[in-house]
Amino acid sequence: MPAPPISDSVTESAAPARIAPGPAVLFRGFARVGLSGFGGVLPWVRRLLVDTERWLTAEEFNVLLGLCQFLPGPNVINLAVAVGVRFCGWRGAVAAALGLMFGPFLVALLLGLLYARYGEIPAVQSLLYGVTLVGAGLIIATGLRMALNLKQRAVYLPFTLAAFVALVLLHWPLPVVMIGGAVLTVSLSWWRLSREARR
Amino acid sequence: MSLLIDLFISFFLVAFVSFGGATAVIPEIYRIVVTEHAWMTAQTFTELFAIAQAAPGPNVLIVTLIGQYVAGWPGALATTLAMCLPMSMLVGILFKHWDRLQHWRGRAAIQLGVAPLAVGLVLASGVLIARSATPGWSGIVLVIVTVWFSLRTQLHPLWLILLGALFGLMELD
User: Which residues of A touch B151 (CB under 8 A)?
Assistant: First the structure.
């Protein structure tokens, strides 16, 4: 099956005619994957949308994911909203997001209750201490992987380092680092893109 | 009620700078709930983080657990909605125009410019969380081992979390 061109023919895909899911179907679909991911639900959502249910082609998925990664906030929830909106407006958005969050939300409440009850026990505390350190290590690994995938690394990696130093060593408030940093980096990338376009 | 409103507003504002998802803003959430409002101790914060890591589902659940600890299930609802709503609404609005924005230079500029900062935020989150657990030498080694395994092998993260739990239990005298 040849992949359709990315930009223009987003609507006319090479896949056979697909039935657009309604809110109830969206809710059930996203509810199935909500609880499946440890350390990230995104790969499972992609499998649901592109492979299992074929609601989207791979190209359409990438376009929507681009929108969600462009905005701040939990990417995977943004993605559920975008898919929902696409198929049935705001009702679809609510259905997909609720489906995705419903199970994990209940599990979190349950774990929170268990923690309130047993959190004082020394064995539980030292167990959580070990899990915290592994969790921190997993996040650092994710960050390093993201750093390796940065585009035009030589230009932008210094800003990664600067943001890291400002937060960890200088204890600057995060909104200051993010907003102040973005003014600098986005001006730079805008300038570089304009210069490229003029060539 | 005012506590719920406080929670909602705090996390609503955090949502706007959470490039890189909930993980990237963990230091800011820490500052709000531990340093500024003293809604919980540093130890409780790291323990809730550990639970969120070990639970299945989106990373944003750390926010749910914090809300619940501070104000029960209404608190959980308040923080989760506050974190998810602002950008969900923007997605709904931007969605219609996204095809056109694809070719706008500003979109590419924002995406290129924000990414390196998001990476810095995520790395800082990892380091600050590790530091807040006040690990000894063995703990620091565990963090490094986790990073190594995660980057160099295809090992499922769940095994590493299990390893962490075992390590923690062995630290217990």
Answer: 141, 144-145
CB contact under 8 Å between A68 and B120, yes or no, is no
Q: Are B130 and A130 in contact (CB under 8 A)?
A: no
How many degrees, rounded to 5, is the angle at CA B108 between CA B107 and CA B109? 90
Instruction: Please tell me if residue A32 touches chain B, with a CB cutoff of 8 Å.
Output: no
- Give the list of residues 6+ apart from residue A63 with CB closer than 8 angstroms, or none: A6, A10, B98, B99, B102
Give, for all 199 residues of chain A, the pLDDT tens digit: 333 333 433 444 444 446 789 999 999 999 988 887 665 688 788 888 998 899 998 888 888 887 887 788 888 899 999 999 989 889 999 999 999 999 999 999 999 999 999 999 999 999 999 999 999 999 999 899 889 888 888 899 999 999 999 999 998 988 899 889 999 999 999 999 999 888 7
SS3 B38: coil
Other beta carbons less than 10 A from residue A125's beta carbon: 16
Report d(CA A185, CA A177) in Å as an integer. Answer: 11
ipTM: 0.91
The residues, ordered by sequence, that sit 6+ positions from B137 with a Cβ below 8 Å of its Cβ are none
Q: Which two tokens stand for residue A87?
A: 């198929």
Q: Does A154 contact B at CB distance below 8 Å?
A: no
Backbone angles phi, psi at A121, to 5 degrees: -70, 130
Helices B61-95 and A75-118: crossing angle in degrees, nearest 10, is 160
In angstroms and rounded to an integer, the radius of gyration of the C-alpha atoms of chain B is 18
Residues B76-82: contacts with CB under 8 Å, at least 24 apart: B76/A105, B76/A108, B76/A109, B76/A112, B78/B4, B78/B7, B78/B8, B78/B11, B79/B7, B79/B8, B79/B11, B80/A101, B80/A105, B81/B8, B82/B7, B82/B8, B82/B9, B82/B10, B82/B11, B82/B12, B82/B14, B82/B15
Which among A21, A28, A65 is positioned nearest to B91, based on CA atoms? Answer: A65
Q: What is the pTM of this model?
A: 0.86
Token readout for A107 is 């599990």
Inter-chain residue contact B151 with A144, CB threshold 8 Å: yes
Distance CA A39, CA B54 (A): 8
Contact flag B98-A36 (C-beta cutoff 8 Å) = no
